[in-house]
Amino acid sequence: MDTLRAWVQATRPLAQVNIATPLLLGQALAFACTGQFSLERMAWIHGFGALAHLFIVFANDFADREGDAHNRTFNQFSGGSRVIPEGKLSPTLIAGAALVALAGLLALGVAALLQGLGPWLLVGTAATAALLWAYSYPPLRYAYRGGGEVLQGLGVGVVLPLLAFATQTGDPLTDMRWAALAPMFVLGVASNILTALPDHPADVAASKRSYPVVHGQWVARRHFLELTVIAACATPLVLPSAPLPVIVTVAAPAVGLALSAIPMLGSADAEQRDECRAFVLRGGAAHGALALCWSIALVALALIG
Q: How many domains does the chain have?
């Protein structure tokens, strides 16, 4: 039973939100642009999302095992799953699990191709593996060298929505609303900054050039809020035909949640664990609200119009 609990902990179930949300958003965009939607294809897409999630969390746990061992300011949103530093599972087991998840992604992609769903899940597997390798592993290791937030923006803000769009429609080039990916990318960059905030002391000790380490915690929090509001204000790129009242309604929850975090802007350092957690919670809620409102509005406007 303890081993089972350790493996559940290693999967970091909360992190699935970072995968499922952009996949849902990409499918909502596909429906808005083409009117196409298939429950069967949705199942394939989220099967990919589940395996990609496992591959990412396991591979990052293995890559970050030394830094995580010295992390004392982690919370449920950062610092890895903790199973390696807590001695619950060995690095070898976690690395093996990452390879099994990657093999599952490849098998799923081949099966989708044989079922006539196109090569998109295989393309998504290659892109996911390449971005994770560049993010966490030598020789690039941009999470440590600086620039990891850009790779996460590309992964969750561009690759995942585009993968979901292509799998639902079969053609990402003809009808894709490319401008919509810009605010999604911004949101992905901001998300990386947010989840790096609690790890600041450990990242400093590990010489990891995360955004809060390079720019300082206060500036990183401010930039996170600014990027969140910028993404919300770019809602017309996602909903170009929506009237102004709809745009305001869609953007308002995220902007309101971001603004509610301003009182913590000067004091939510990682060392203040409760306040830092509260800041991350509000920031994560703002992102979830914006992505959810985008998705609902895309589907609703397509059904109405």
A: 1
